[in-house]
Design a protein that fits this description.
The complex is a heterodimer of chains A (about 575) and B (about 220).
Chain A: H1 2-14, E1 20-24, E2 27-31, E3 37-42, E4 45-47, E5 50-52, E6 55-59, E7 77-78, H2 80-83, H3 91-108, H4 116-127, H5 131-135, H6 139-145, E8 149-153, H7 164-176, E9 182-184, E10 191-193, H8 237-250, E11 258-261, E12 264-270, H9 275-284, H10 297-308, H11 311-316, E13 321-330, E14 333-343, H12 344-358, H13 372-377, H14 392-402, H15 408-421, H16 426-442, H17 461-479, H18 487-497, H19 499-516, H20 520-534, H21 546-574
Parallel strand pairs in A: 2-8
Antiparallel strand pairs in A: 1-6, 2-3, 4-5, 7-8, 9-10, 11-12, 12-13, 13-14
Helix pairs in contact in A: 1-8, 12-16, 15-16, 15-18, 15-21, 16-21, 17-18, 17-19, 17-20, 17-21, 18-19
Chain B: H1 2-8, E1 13-22, H2 41-51, E2 57-66, E3 71-80, H3 93-96, E4 97-118, H4 128-141, E5 158-162, E6 175-185, E7 192-201, E8 204-206
Antiparallel strand pairs in B: 1-4, 1-5, 2-4, 2-8, 3-4, 6-7, 7-8
Classes of the chains: A alpha+beta (about 575), B alpha+beta (about 220).
Chain lengths: ~575, ~220
């Protein structure tokens, strides 16, 4: 279904004629009808610091690599070495390349007089006098950048390959080509010429700059029934072109339908143009630098619209098909990491559920909705994205979209980071809470699960011990103002893992700390809250399960947040 | 003619198969494997043939019921990059090892509805009742020529012969699964793949009969 949906996307949304593709072409040679050089145009625009060329419709790119690359020229466009046989680089090949370019042109257009544009190029190439071209002021730029060149007829708006007559000729040629293997295309179900090699897919992070392939049978181990290359999986040329073009346009560097999730380059699309395509990246991506960390329009729409009755309410019931595809490189191949298909409504509901599960009390300067990146990075060593466990990001994304419990490794790695760093920051607390809450809901557990904010009635032993630990730390901090290292730095790991080894000692320490407090009322208050927490604890257990360690972290976090909020309220009341 | 047909066609069997993992590889993604959403007819045939097969019979699949929700898992495995040529003495796996990704199904269970037909290779000793009884006896005892698998040899399948009465509940999904591999046609020289449009309807895929216009080859 992956290739089918992509081919459909191409058909419905991109609408490039058969055999064509979109390509950035920086330079255009303008010819008059006699094939005489008129001008050299530079189509590049300065966009920020990078110069970007305009995009044109050109005949499809040929796949070339290795020592025989000079044999393969593109039709009507290519680098200066092919088009005019002049190049700074690889000078010994330029002449041969130019010959290939000319012969491909001659083979394709037997009769140049069919179109004035073709006739002009034919005359220009036959004449072979490029002196006036080389004299043009833009020519050094062409050589320096080795950028693609194509042709345009003087007075025309479009380039030659975009002329209707040229499109007609090229499409008729495709039909006439009879030297081919026919078969049933497994994408369309129609009989078609089977593509032997599939074109390269570019833009998946980590692949070679020349691109990679999803469908490729390079090694003999991949072949079945004595079939070579693409005949192992009959994909028609038309379907191949469609899905490759769709993929490349979705993976394009300007694409708004692409996000990086861990090591998986993730693209998404709807069956028809849909607002969700604009919003999806906002749900999961990092907010752009410089913009406020407050909620994006997308998340606002998701949350506020049901109340106001605007677009978002419709969004939740929208059954437009929506697809998400995660691709990751493996050598020169591209592997499918995950694949999701559902409706816009399902996606919206599941994303909302995800944010609901994540919701937890936090400081006023923290964003309410955490990006996927911040969550994942909180489980990684040193908070570096390259340390995110491979495969975790993709799995995480998949579970969010499908609305199923988060991967188990998420909980264990978050807890491991808590113990190693002896700290429970906001994203990690949110993540642990979300994993627990989701498991409880999915498996319909009876007992209560950790909530959004401090829950004084929640009796779970892990949660209680977490709260107790936070209170003990607070007492120490108040007893020794400005202290550098608290009990958390020494005891977090053992307190959450094997409480029996830590808590008796900590309770003894607490007595010393309390006696140092000058404000005796405060000491009494602390004693009271310890008593209240301890009331729910029988014996201190020898060890806590992974889930309870998670609840410990959340309890600790809740209790600490509670101290901060109380203080703020007290401050406000004092004013 | 009709009578003759009845003599050559067996009753319908319902075989439940299940396993922890499955990969019914899509041909276009068989290097970095990606599974179809559900079992293909050729995979189902493979399971039946593992339990009972003789040249005298040929299995035909009529329907595949999906019993468990479709769940996916992404796994990286070590595989080998070359095939051994008949002339070579050995192949040193360590040198040819490669890591490949796979998108597999998890926790699957299906009911295969199938019958067999007597082929031209059936001798005078072969008759329908004999093979029907043999299959039922073998399937009930759990006998098989080789361990049946769910698409890949490493994903072993458990099986159980079901009565018509107690067919288990399928999932309720209805969706278009796209073009799915039907089987390979070995009849005319070069092996050719055949495809059909698979629709999951209330958890069941109805498999068109071989030779119908729905099977493209």
């Amino acid at each position: 279904m992956i290739l089918q949906s992509l081919a459909q996307y191409y058909k419905d949304r991109l609408g490039v004629p058969d055999g064509y593709q979109k390509k950035e072409i920086p330079f255009i040679i303008v010819l008059d009808t006699q094939g005489r050089f008129v001008d050299l145009l530079d189509t590049r625009d300065t966009e920020g610091r990078i110069k970007r060329a305009r995009v044109f419709l050109v005949p499809r790119e040929v796949k070339r690599s290795g020592s025989k690359a000079w044999e393969k020229a593109n039709l009507l466009w290519d680098t200066p070495a092919y088009v005019v046989g002049i190049s700074h680089k690889e000078s010994e090949n330029a002449a041969r390349k130019h010959e290939s370019f000319k012969s491909r042109f001659a083979q394709t257009f037997h009769d140049p007089s069919l179109d004035p544009g073709i006739a002009a190029i034919h005359a220009f190439l036959t004449n072979g006098q490029f002196a006036s071209l080389q004299a043009h002021s833009s020519w050094p730029d062409v050589l320096d950048t080795d950028g693609y060149i194509t042709f345009k007829l003087e007075g025309d708006e479009c380039i030659v390959s975009e002329r209707d007559a040229v499109k007609d000729i090229l499409q008729r040629l495709q039909v006439l080509n009879n030297d081919m293997v026919k078969g049933i295309c497994l994408v369309s179900g129609e009989e078609d010429e089977v593509a032997r090699l599939h074109n390269a897919i570019k833009g998946v992070r980590g692949t070679l700059s020349t691109g990679g392939n999803i469908v490729s049978f390079k090694l003999p181990a991949f072949e079945s029934f004595g079939k070579a290359q693409g005949y192992n999986a009959p994909v028609g040329k038309r379907a191949e072109f469609a899905y490759i073009t769709a993929l490349n346009s979705l993976l394009d560097k300007d694409s708004r339908q692409k996000i990086q999730v861990g090591d998986a380059t993730t693209i998404f699309w709807a069956e028809k143009a849909h607002q969700m395509e604009d919003w999806f990246a906002d749900f999961f991506g990092e907010p752009p630098k410089g913009e406020s960390t407050q909620d994006s329009a997308a998340i606002k729409a998701l949350y506020e619209a049901p109340v106001t009755g605007a677009a978002g309410a419709v969004l939740l019931d929208d059954d437009t098909r929506f697809y998400v595809l995660g691709l990751a490189p493996n050598a020169a191949r591209i592997a499918v990491r995950f694949w999701y298909q559902g409706s816009v409504g399902e996606v919206a509901r599941n994303i909302k559920q995800h944010f609901d599960d994540l919701a937890i009390v936090h400081g006023p300067n923290q964003p309410t909705h955490l990006s996927l990146f911040r969550l994942l990075v909180s489980t990684a060593i040193q908070g570096k994205s390259e340390n995110i466990q491979p495969n975790l990001a993709g799995e995480f994304m998949k579970t969010i979209l499908a609305g199923i419990p988060y991967p188990n490794t998420l909980l264990s790695s978050a807890i491991r980071r808590c113990r190693a760093e002896r700290e429970v920051p906001y994203p990690r607390a949110a993540l642990i809470k979300a994993v627990l809450a989701r498991q409880a809901r999915f498996y319909r557990r009876e007992e209560k699960e950790v909530g959004m904010a401090l829950d004084k009635d929640y009796l779970n032993i892990g949660y209680r011990l977490g709260r107790l630990f936070a209170v003990l730390e607070k007492i120490q901090e108040e007893a020794n103002p400005g202290i550098n290292a608290t009990i958390r730095d020494r005891f977090y790991g053992s307190a959450s893992g094997t409480p029996i080894t830590a808590f008796p000692h900590l309770m003894k320490l607490k007595n010393h700390h309390l006696s140092k407090l000058e404000n005796k009322g405060r000491a009494v208050n602390f004693e009271r809250s310890i008593g209240e927490i301890m009331a729910g604890i029988g014996d201190i257990p020898t060890h806590l399960s992974l889930q309870d360690q998670g609840r410990f972290a959340v309890g600790y976090y809740h209790q600490r947040q509670d101290f901060f909020t109380k203080k703020e309220q007290a401050d406000m009341e004092g004013e | 003619m009709h009578d003759n047909e009845n003599k050559r066609r067996s009753r319908l069997f319902n075989l439940k198969v299940w396993g922890e993992n499955a990969c019914f590889t899509r041909p276009e993604m068989k290097v970095e494997r990606v599974s179809y959403d559900a079992m293909t007819p050729s995979a189902a045939r493979g399971i039946l043939e593992a339990i009972h097969w003789k040249p005298a019979i040929k299995w035909h699949i009529t329907q595949i019921d999906v019993l468990n929700p479709i769940k996916w898992t992404s796994v990286r495995r070590n595989e080998v990059g070359i095939k051994m040529s008949p002339s070579s003495k050995q192949l040193f796996i360590e040198d040819q090892r490669q890591q490949r990704a796979g998108l597999f199904l998890r926790d699957v269970a299906y009911v295969i509805h199938a019958f067999f037909r007597m082929t031209d290779k059936a001798g005078p000793d072969d008759n329908l009742a004999k093979h029907e009884e043999m299959f039922m006896r073998r399937a009930k005892k759990g006998q098989c020529f080789h361990r049946p698998c769910l698409g890949c040899r490493e994903f072993a399948a458990d099986f159980e012969l079901l009565d018509d009465k107690d067919l288990p509940q399928t999932i309720t999904d209805t969706k278009d699964l796209g073009w799915m591999l039907y089987d390979i046609d070995f009849n005319n020289g070069e092996p050719k793949p055949m495809f059909f449009r698979a629709y999951l309807e209330n958890g069941s895929i109805v498999v068109p009969p071989l030779g119908s216009s729905e099977v493209r080859k």
